[in-house]
Amino acid sequence: MTERLKWAVIDSWTMTRRNLTLWVRVPAYIMFTVIQPLMFMLLFRYVFGGAIPIKVKGGYVNYLVPGVIGQTCAFTSFNTALALAQEIKKGSIDRLRSMPMARSAVLVGRLGADLVRLTVTIGVLIGTGYLVGFRFENGAGPAVLMILLALAIGLALACVSAFTGLAIKDEESVQAFGLIWVFPFTFVSAAFVSIASMPGWLQAFANNQPLSIFIEALRALALGGPLAQHLWQSAAWLVGILVVFGSLAARAYRRV
Amino acid sequence: MTESAILVEQLHKSFGPVEALRGIDLAVPRGTVLGVLGPNGAGKTTAVRILTTLLRPDRGRAVIEGLDVVRRAAEVRKIIGLAGQSAAIQDELTGRENLEFVGRLYHLPRDRCRRRAADLLARFELVDAGDRAAKTYSGGMARRLDLAASLVAEPAVLFLDEPTTGLDPRSRIGMWSLIRDLVAGGTTLLLTTQYLDEADELADQIVVIDHGRVIASGTSDQLKDQVGGDVLEFTVADPARRIRAAALVSALSDHDPQVDEASGLISLRIGRRGSDALVEAVRILDQEQIEVQGLATHRPSLDDVFMSLTGHSAEDLAEAR
Ligand SMILES: Nc1ncnc2c1ncn2[C@@H]1O[C@H](COP(=O)(O)OP(=O)(O)OP(=O)(O)O)[C@@H](O)[C@H]1O
Ligand SMILES: [Mg+2]
Fold first, then answer.
1. Using only C-alpha atoms, what is the Rg of chain B?
2. Average pLDDT for residues A117-142, to the nearest whole number?
3. What radius of gyration, in Å, describes the C-alpha atoms of chain A?
4. Residue B101: its chain A contacts at CB < 8 A?
């Protein structure tokens, strides 16, 4: 059993390394990972930001950066589904599954590599955020906790994405489906604007959907203010998503 | 009786309403090559995926070297190699990296991975391209790399799903000689193909499958006999000499020659006599100084096999789907 666990870890690491190697060799992936979230941040900082009346300490940029980080967790989770669908199409998943490696390693290696990517993206967002006026207002400890929470969110959403990729399989359908859920969840949320500015019927959704809850928790960690409720609600959603979609993804992988 | 490296009994598999396999039986003696021949959608890939532990059969049993593919899948995976229908290599990695990466996942020590990769690159004529990204490879090179990847752990039983589909004739022949060398090393091979000449070239035994059933099996000679064997063909332009020519060659076969008056084409089934009959025909026609064009023998194609076994051509079948 410990032997098996040892190989599961080694194989997952091999897969993670391989996925990261693929990633750094394709310039378009790097664009997608880094440039796109940066564009969103700068767009809202300098183009729309002036028209968005939000009063927080340090100004709109402080409100924006945790929001963009939450949005990025959802957007980059796309890649998990796309990468898995591509591997199915190419037949590389068949080859991997016919080998005596740990079966979990394909999924774990995928999620691991995507988590590393997300870490890089969040680092770039925070670094650039600092250049355009963002500051953590709540001390170093909560700042680190915010980054860890963002990674946990990224992981949970990547599990959702992994499941859709493995279940739908077809690359284009995966892409279309991904856009359908990512757009409403990221924009009808607390990411960029105050939910109170939306019409009442929309507020009901925006207030209660998980991405808003996650973003409010990120924001509370970064900027201070009431935290406990945001944190435990987020934790409940995270555990729920991880358990449900983690096992759905594992099941879909066995059936590919 | 030789021991079977691959044994399949009454394998069934459906995908919803589609019955991909409806009771397949196979037995492949150790160290031999089985060619699984069938048109698009016959169930070849489905059978390979079950045998390589990727799919569970609905019914029936498949055993590799004594190990059941469902109950002892983990052990089966240690002794098999698979090169699927599309080349499962990573375009962004170099050829060498692709092979080393596969070796790591077979849990080979690092230096052994390196040696294996170098050996295989040399053997598959990829040394010069070994440190280039695989996306720069030609179709033939990518296929060779994919085949090499399936051999990293020196499997006892190898599965190749349509290894030459989509290759130009030269790459195909190159691939054939690589596969032949492999088999000479004692590997048991199951290979699927849509081409009779490929099965003919590489396989000891052939099974023809259609609609998920085995519709014929045997050596390639046995199959061709079922179809009526080779055909001798030539054209005599001079109508006056045509009947005489037909009468002369009729001595070469139990069958009667067919004469097409419009084109002057004479054809004769000559069973398995192939080149003998050809030489003989040249001699007797030359003796009477009959002028002929395009004298040749034709081997029956997959289409001929299908035509005679099922009454419709392989292409019609593919189109009907
Ligand atoms: N995962 C699947 N889901 C649904 N139907 C499938 C699936 N895999 C195969 N089939 C169907 O099963 C039948 C047999 O398919 P299979 O891929 O085994 O054929 P094949 O002989 O390999 O054909 P080809 O020469 O085109 O590769 C086909 O009708 C195919 O559409
Ligand atoms: Mg196939």
1. 23
2. 94
3. 19
4. 14, 18
Pick the CATH number of B4-221 from 3.60.140.10, 1.25.60.10, 3.40.50.12780, 3.40.50.300: 3.40.50.300
A98 neighbourhood in chain B, CB within 8 Å: 52-54, 77, 80, 82
* DSSP per-residue string spanning B209-248: EETTEEEEEE-HHHHHHHHTBEEEEEE---HHHHHHHHHH
Contacts with B82 from chain A: Cβ below 8 Å: 94-95, 98
The ipTM of this complex is 0.85
- Whether B138 is in the pocket of ligand 1, judged by its Cβ within 6 Å, is no
Domain B229-299 sits in CATH 1.10.3470: no
**Averaged pLDDT for residues B271-292:** 82
Quick one: pLDDT band at residue B321, thresholds 50, 70, 90? very low
CA distance B319 to B321: 5
* Distance of CA A48 from the midpoint of ligand 2 (Å): 53
pTM here is: 0.83
Instruction: Give the Cα separation of B225 and B210 in Å (integer).
Output: 19
Strands B157-161 and B188-193: parallel
Cα A57 to middle of ligand 1, angstroms: 61
What is the per-residue pLDDT for A129? 95
Band (pLDDT 50/70/90 cuts) for residue B52 is very high
- Torsions phi, psi of B260, nearest 5? -100, 110
How confident is the model over A97-107, as a mean pLDDT?
A: 92
Atom of ligand 1 lying closest to residue B212 CA = 14
CB B258 within 8 A of CB B267: yes
Q: What residues does each domain of chain B span?
A: 4-221, 229-299
Helix (H) or strand (E) holding A209: none
